[in-house]
Design brief:
Chain B: It holds the Pfam family AcnX. The complex is a heterodimer. By secondary structure, chain A is of the alpha/beta class. Chain A has three helices and eight strands, in the order E-E-E-E-H-E-H-E-H-E-E.
Amino acid sequence: MELTADILLPGDGADNAVVEGDVLALTAPISFWGGVDPKTGTIIDARHPERGQNIAGRVLALPGTIGSSSASAVLLELVHAGRAPAAILMPEPDAILLLGLVVAREMGWAIPPALRVSAQDQRGLAGQQVEIEGGMIRSRTAA
Amino acid sequence: MLTLTPEQQAAAAGEHGRGSAIAMRIVAEAARLMGAPRLIPVASAHIDGALYHGDSGTLFAEALVDGGASVQVEATLNVGALDLVGCSRVRLQPHEREMAKRMMRAYEALGCSPTWTCAPYQAGHRPAVGSDVAWGESNAVVFCNSVLGARTNRYGDFLDIACAIAGVAPDYGLHRPENRRAAVVVDVSGLSPKLRASEAFWPVFGTWYGLTLGSEIGVVTGLEGLATEDRLKAMGAASASSGGVGLFHVAGVTPEAPDLATACGGADGLAQCKRIVVTGPMMRAASARLSTAEGDAVDAIAIGSPHLSADEVAELDRLLDGRRVAVPFYACTGRHVIRAIEADGSRARLERQGITFVADTCVVVTPILERTDGVLMTNSGKFAHYAPGNTGLAVQYGALADCVESAVAGRLVREERLWS
């Protein structure tokens, strides 16, 4: 599987830098504040279906975000702690969450890329090992 | 497609220093992400970014200070993680305490007013109707838009301070008049007058409203003559906790809703509105949802989310009527109210009766409660929403009078007939 996505925020490194990771596709929207442990990247929202999974180093596919205006602070803290996702896929840009990456970039910290991927395409990628090059997402899992 | 003025481009390139450049680039990047065509001047800001979530936020604030930045407009500060007034004891570890303190000091060094309250609109920060502002903290946002009639989006951490330093904000969403019109008419006139006139109704109605409308804009009819500022504050805070509410209208009460049609952008807009008739069972279900505990145990009481006004402290004083509380009772408020109740003697009197005031912060954002299990009683829809996840305590919801009677009795005492 291969798809081309809009780049919401480019990651660090050269334009042809490749990001690799396995896709953690959340099945429900999440609030980062109160939903993700900023020190470890573990999903702690007791009511979330993916509770207990860890987002660090994964290609995190978000069907949507909800809630707190402090989501950006949690994402910034994850970047600073080296526990950020390898990439973030979301159907629409979210000014609150992605601000965490914008601020991290201003601080000179390495940030993961954020790409626009529909919820339907996210489901198709669930569990796959992928590589992301610019806006190109390629599955490396054998069909 | 975003277009920056030459002045904005120069600021982003560092003409006014490194801190100002960081702020302008953050505002411009947020505008680009949200598809805003331009940046518009803002008259004021309310900053929610000074609550400690980890060291990175402190380092960012200090980078702005080191870069020579300062706010260009009036900027009040939301709660921090420490009670700098010293009314209550915050149980943070030494490293976290130090970093939280450095963060609060950095925001003060940027020129923000040390208001440290989630109710800045009751601490003298009241922008004019129709003015554009950049406010954070969900309850302050909804109050600012709905009750004051100033215009703000829901600004998240970092963007609020960046807008205050840059003096501009992305032009989209609730800054634009066409996006402020109601699309839903919410009719509560069928609920009993006694219920609508009770204090306990407003947080419950707000909870239902947020769950039902989400980020859709509604106009409520049936509250004329009943809405006080503290009631609208309680309703808005609850609605912004349970849903993504940034603006509501109340016909005959709030500034953009002199009547139903005006709130909807005219007769045609009103005709196209969805209509929801609110019933007693809907309110009973929302009320039941706020309480997560069973039985009659109450281990602590917390009120003041949003922060108590001086009127609300006076009501607590009246209801307690000289009696002592039997369980820990936390009353969260701002230093603007602490000054007033010190002057009139009620702080010392209430503290002798067992009340613990909490200033500059509150019990769901920083560790203050003595225990991490048991049952917390509150009259706040917002505390009821966040307390189970943030503190570990289960919740009983009740009116302020119920909270006071329960605190004196040391077990749950609640007027249940209101909802029948």
